[in-house]
Amino acid sequence: MARLADYFVVIGYDLDKRVEGEGQGCILQRFPEKDWEDSPFPQGIELFCQPSGWQVVPEQQPASFFVAVLTDINSDRHYCACFTFWECLDNPQKADGSRADEADEEADVVQPARVFAPKSLVLVSQLDYTEVFRNCLGLIYTVHVDDLSVPLETVIGNLLTCVIPLAGGSQTDESAVCSLDRVVPGVACLQRTITLGAGDRQVIQTPISDSLPVSGCSVAQLFRQLGIVNVLYLFCAALTEHKILFLSSSYQRLTDACRGLLAIMFPLKYSFTYVPILPGKLLEVLSTPTPFIIGVNSFFRSETQELLDVIIADLDGGTVTIPECVHISLLPEPLLQQTQTALSMVLDPELEVADQAFPPQSTQPSALKIQDKEIRAVFLWLFARLFQGYRWCLHIIRIHPEPVIRFHKAAFLGQRALMEDDFLMKVLDGMAFAAFVSERGPPYRTTDLFDDLVANQVERIRQEESCPHKVLNHVKELAEQLFKNENPYPAVAMHKVQRPSDSSLNPTQNQKPFPVLDEVSVQLFIDHAAAKLKTAPPVVKAEVKSMVPSGPPLGDTVDRNGCVMANSARRLEVVRNCISYIFENKMLEAKKLMPAVLRALKGRGARLCFTQELNQHVLQNRAVLDDQQFDYIVRMMNCTLQDCSHMDEHGVAAALLPLVTAFCRKLGAGITQFAYSCVQEHTVWTNMQFWEAMFYSDVQNHIRALYLETEDGEQHSISQQQQDGSGSRKDISALELASEQSRLWPTFGKEMQAELVQKEESTVFSQAIHYANRMSYLLLPLDTSKNRLLKSSGLGDVESVSNSYVTNSIAGSMAESYDTESGFEDAESSDVANSVVRFINRFVDKVCNESGVTNEHLKALHIMIPDIVQMHIETLDAVHRESKRLPPIQKPKLLRPTLLPGEELMMDGMRVHLVPDGRDEATGLMGGPALLPAEGAIFLTTYRLIFKGTPTDPLVGEQVVTRSFPIASLTKEKKISVTAIDQYVQEGLQLRSCTFQLIKIAFDEEVESDLVEVFRKHLHKLRYPQHVHGTFAFTVGQCGKLVVEHKTKDKNQSLKTLSRNLVKTAKRTIVRQNVSRKKYSPPTWENRSSLQSELDEDEISVSEEVDHSVLTLSSTIRSSDRQTMSNVVERACCRDYQRLGLGTLSNSLTRSKSEPFRISTVNRMYSICRSYPGLLIVPQTIPDSTIQRISRCYRQNRFPVVCWRNSRTKAVLLRSAGLHAKGVVGFFKSPNTPTAVPSQADSTSLEQEKYLQAIIGSMPSYSESSGRNTLSGFSSAHMSTSDSADKLRQPKIGMLMKQVMGVKEEVPGTFSRGGRWGSIRLTGSGALRLSAYNPDVGPRLAGFESPQPNGGPSEPLFLRQQKAFLYIIGDKSQLKGGKQDAFQQWEVVPIEVCDVRQVKNSFKKLIKACMPSSVTADGFLRCVEESEWMSLLHRVLQVSVLVVELLDTGSSAMVSLEDGWDVTTQVVSLVQLLSDPYYRTFDGFRLLVEKEWLSFGHRFSHRGAQTLASQSSGFTPVFLQFLDCVHQIHLQFPMEFEFSQYYLKFLAYHYVSNRFRTFLLDSDYERIELGVLFEEKGERKSPLVCKSVWDYIDRLNKKAPVFYNYMFSPEDEEVLRPYTFISNLKLWDFYTEETLSEAPSYDWELRGRQERAEEVADKPDTSAPVTQRRIVWPCYDNLSKVMPDAISKLLQDLQSLEAELGQTAERWKDTWDKIKMTQRTDAKPESKPSFSSSLLMASNLSHQRRSQGVCLQESAVGPSLNLGLDCEGGATSTPVPGRTSTSTLYSQFQSTESENRSFEGILYKRGSILKPWRPRWFVLDKTKHQLRYYNTRQDKECRGFIDLAEVEAVTSGSPMVTSPKITEKAYFDLKTTKRVFCFCAQDAASAQQWMDSIQSCLSDA
């Protein structure tokens, strides 16, 4: 029973304590005046009556009511119901005469004579009955204002003496209690009717269960005000202990909102600051650091704005504001979603049917009171799901005298698979949950709705959770129970409470003030009631206690969800088998299974299975193993523990704890090493919470055993209890046992009780000693002399620990690892023993205090612990001594890499693991062996970074795995941390190379961190040398110097002289460097004043007159420089210019004036343009002085020069950089514009026009047309081909132009293959977007032609009048605003070029796609597509094809893009390659690269970031992009190239490898300056070092046909027009292929050395049977080596046979040429096509047929000669009809054993006169009726034959003088119609055989 009201208080306005208008309240009267013992009077109540402050107001306010909540020091809540009304009083300010002097300040304010002051009637109670309090206080006010006849004292006296039951109530008669009636006899326990004696009547319904909160409508109201999401935020914030502040202008709403929030938190109780209404004077409380739920009037909103960590909920505005610094953890999914759905269905049932055509009639939400309970039911359902199975994670550690219960958080989270869930972690760590455990943990107590829900309805909840309607039905059932709890009898509601009359509510006359009450009469009421209560019988609260049901265990629920069973039965079987092999001593079997077991142990199921299996091998707590068994078991234990978190949520460490003290091995006499000394390096052992949970779990087991023992009267040992199941009460859980004991406790006698308490206490004490021992085992390191800091909050606050998992007896290295990882600084904490003692002491203090161990026992423990630790240290010392004597673990031997000549090791190999990356091929996931991970070493040499090792998988342990790449190709290096299979490796590196290699390594435990740093520094130095002299190409063979001094003596004097002259010239001529805003800009030369005289000083005369410009080179350069200049002349460009007929350097007398172009020496000193070659082709008519002026208009002074001429149309190809901005304006200014004075810019633009006009004038088409714009000089025969397919295929230039310029056009559907050139619009940042068509630019070209409706080609293009003579391919951005003159002969094609940045970014993405560092969700093809690499290739090829078409139709083209050294170079190189077959040969391609890329200054060093200076610019693969384009063309035209795909890959690899000097530096000028351009000829002293890649290729090509394309069969003057659609492009296999057996195969010396090493290694195995079978692994073997194509194979066989026979080997090229010749001669008599077309039918090949030709690539598949159409090397494989058979090719490869060889053998044949007898291999062929002979048996080529038709007789012969000395009978003669052949066989018998065979052959005929 409880009092309805504890105190009644009257509080009024205190006139005396008023300060500047701010009043205070004071207590006028309170009843009773004396405090109740059980409920002291709350202090400061007057503040809460007027939370906004005590103010007087000029007008009367309506009466108000609200309930404030105060919390006392014992955390009990007091509900203060405040009823406030306003009384009239004289204005204190008018009355106060002393303030007259301040009147002047307030003169403007008219002060009213009377004001109204507040007065509050306050009722203080421990019960929360808001409505009852409202009615009672309202009644008192009514009695006062309406002057009712009832004395106020009686009403208040009755109120203070009301007693009601808390819940359920008692059956006592209430006659003793004044004014209480029983209404219905049967409802006595649930409701009371009270009356205060003023004719009123109220029914109080007490809740059925007092543990369930009473909410009224407050929850529903809260959701209406804030909405579902906002309330859920507040709910989660409250549970995770955040600060919450409610704002509202209504005090009662603040109270209701706070009450509602607490109600939905049930069954958790809020235990922090809870103030629903906070007075304004106490606002500083909001700055408290602790969590709170507080309500404040909106009046104080501005003062809450500064709160940075408070969540503010505005009830009036419906908003919740969460500050940025606050992170609220939300409910885990799918719970959050399901809760939101359920709440939505409760609050807004119409939502679901809102879209229905015929919505049901009754979808109204429930009444507010019902809705309130439905919402609460949703949260109850939510908590039942969150906490399901929580009782299975309770540890009962004491039953008597009071139950002590602890919650095993880690096990709960682990079984729920919610370890990572932030919300649940915070809730379980919170105070509310701790209170929940202590309140609901005890197993024997009264239960409520939540207990029932968790115990009995979990199954139902789980089945229904996915069906919202079933959830709603369940929610409604729960809501009904909640409603019934609050309103047990809703029908019985007989309220009768008088309200004040309307007149008294709106009084016109002055009310009388509230009277002073008679305290004595009120006290009499209270005393009288108290006396009655004393005489009444005592109230016994009949509590119905029972055992709390636990519900279904957690394990089952999760298993059914299928979250846990990740391990398949097969894996568990592997673990079991491995363990049984170990214990059966089958070590080889165990070793094979080990990698699979270590992989399996990643899964929880396998780890638990492992602990169970090990348990079976423990006998009497001990299992002695031998060394190898011990190593394996420890290794598996470490692997099992490695993936355990520090919390051990799955109980794996807990299961292993008894095992690590059981498994041991004998080290020596009486010395045993236990497994715990090798598994200490895991964080779980240093986690205090883990030890506590383990301790409590063990104590619970022992307590349970204690009571089972006493009840059964049988002595079961604990181990039997746990394992046998033989106890009769085995299935009783500890909680059930505790419940039973709690029930029986009152029935025990005092002695019995004391005995039980003592037994429990000693059980806990003995376990504490046991755990002190266990902890010392796992915390003390094997070598205690070394310092070690354990990682935990317990043993040391610094988180640092050695990560090397010692898996067996290497105590030495273990000690070292401790040493290096020591984190101790000061001497005090450096003692390991002390820190362990402190840790154990803290543990013991905590668990013993919680378990109620007596102080005496605790002291004894503290004395014991240091002794335990000391004793253990002594034991360990002996173990450590002995373990040092054991042999160390055998690690794989480090394999030394094969090095190139001149390559040297920079660092010794460091032991590492090569870890798998995102490529699946080597890991065995795609089938095949698991080559990775591999164990070996990383080597750093002067040239390469090499990993060499063996796979960790023993099944492929014999293989050698190698990965390497040149250091110069390293693009990214980053540190990573890697977890290997069986140990945690400290650190790793990921190294990515632009040769498409990725090395991801993890350093072994023996490699120290500082060594790794040294390695990285060396690597960085080698990758970015200070100067180009530091690169491998220069340092090769120089004893490992990292950087060579630059001042080396020049061997060639003329180079030195030239270099000096260059500097001198530069100093004189330079006036100002024009530096653009790019990162790097070679100096440009401008504004030369008296250039002539300056050049004269240098003894170089250059005449500006055209007539004298034909001076020979020898007359224009000083004699000392002639050697160098002759080298310049020999340079590739000049050879090519002469081949193309573009000019000669012969004597002026022999030069023809009619030649349109000349070789100019204007740049011979590199003074005009440093990045151009010394000799340039310019129009004959342009003097050098003009060139100097023109060059200033172009970026980097790279003015237009001719680089190629079409031999048929005489159109020329020019290259230049883009124009400078000023040059653009002048160049495109209309010539008709009148200018008064010609400016310098105008004159320059005129000279530019003159220059272009000179180029146009050089074209025969222009001169023949006498200036007219027609090309009639060309016959159409040049343009047409006999093959109609080609006509269709040739793109229309206009169409092509529109694509390149990005013009949209309607193409008729009938236009044959027109779509092939359709514009591909690229999107995305990296794409090359084409400009929109500008009508002023390229009008003639864009309207070039319209296809005819029948789809045939339109009329010949060159007969069109509007065709321009010169097209300038320019950068769109440079050509804005230019006007084109209609009469000019040139036209500009604006395109948007790809920026270098785009290429760089695209390449980065391509590398990541081809070599992902980890497995990505996006597929490989998606990543390649996103890199946009293919789009860039498409763009370059498309522009190149356009230029090819222009040149082929007779128009010249000038490529003038960016700085003229990137895209320009790509385009002009591709144009020449496509147009001129010469460039598709070895010599031609070399010449093309030397001319266009090296001489014309592509910046190889800068783009390749080869030195420290260019490091920041990053790697940009412009040249690689060009090679990829060539590869695409090669795929489409496999018969047009002399070189193979391997040749391109070789160049792609070595142009970044820095092995050769060819691709170093940025221009010829720089190469000459450093003296490297012409050194190859003079410096051939070192045969080891090849400085030029071309020389190396030549040498290699002579030895073996690696670079040769056997399909090379070119058509004369064929112009290639490849398809450029992205769909036609293939990803180059250079980017994806890998050979782990030997690393990249581009350094051929390594191959030879490796093969020799392999031969040596293979020799001992002679006894083993030899098999012809060979297994080929795609990512391991080099396919071209293991499975060579047929022709290579035959050439190899031929070589090996020649070697066997001791003959001098013939060069492969000679052999091949012979075969081709034989093929031709054999084919002619049979009227077959020539060899070049024997592979293909037609002589005039169309593109389709060419691209489908036979291709024998260097890596073709299959050992046979596959000449079918299916082997076409990447082009489309549609067969071509009408192809002839390929038997002609087979004829020279026919087997020597074929069926038409009737008889064969060696015969000596007499030569012609004076020639000796020679042995020949003779073959008798019955089919062809021939006797053929060959030089040798292996010879494929027949040397001659005797036609048997001409044989007349076969007779015995006789020897001659010169004949072999063989018996006479071995001779025989063959007489033909023409002559007699004399033969000699080996002996007489074979001679007889031969004669018989020939005779039978003759007779058969």
Task: Explain what this protein looks like in three dimensions.
The chain is α+β, with helices and mostly antiparallel strands and 1901 residues long. Helix content is 38%, strand content 13%. Strands 26-25-24-23-29-28-27 form a 7-stranded antiparallel beta sheet, covered by helices on one side. The protein has a 7-stranded antiparallel beta sheet with strand order 40-39-38-37-43-42-41, with helices on one face. Strands 3-2-6-5-4 form a 5-stranded antiparallel beta sheet. β4 and β5 (77-90) form a beta hairpin. The longest helix is centred in the middle third of the chain and has 30 residues, at 750-779. About 19% of the residues have low confidence.
Element layout with pairings:
Elements lengths: L1 E2 L3 E13 L2 E10 L13 H5 L14 E8 L5 E14 L1 H4 L18 E12 L4 H16 L6 H9 L2 E2 L15 E2 L9 E4 L7 E4 L12 H9 L1 H12 L3 E6 L2 H14 L8 E3 L16 E6 L3 H4 L5 E5 L4 E3 L13 H13 L2 H4 L14 H19 L7 E5 L5 E4 L1 H8 L5 H8 L1 H10 L3 E2 L3 H8 L1 H7 L3 H19 L15 H4 L13 H17 L10 E2 L6 H8 L7 H15 L3 H14 L3 H12 L7 E3 L1 H16 L9 H9 L2 E6 L2 E4 L13 H25 L5 H6 L10 H11 L5 H30 L31 H11 L10 H20 L3 H30 L20 E10 L19 E8 L2 E8 L9 E6 L3 E7 L11 E6 L3 E7 L5 H15 L8 H4 L17 H17 L21 H7 L15 H4 L5 H9 L1 H9 L16 E4 L15 E4 L4 H8 L9 E5 L6 E5 L4 H8 L11 H18 L2 H5 L19 H6 L3 H9 L37 H4 L23 E6 ...
Parallel strand pairs: 11-13, 11-14, 12-13, 20-21, 33-36, 34-35, 34-36
Antiparallel strand pairs: 1-7, 2-3, 2-6, 4-5, 5-6, 8-9, 9-10, 14-15, 16-17, 18-19, 21-22, 23-24, 23-29, 24-25, 25-26, 27-28, 28-29, 30-31, 32-33, 37-38, 37-43, 38-39, 39-40, 41-42, 42-43
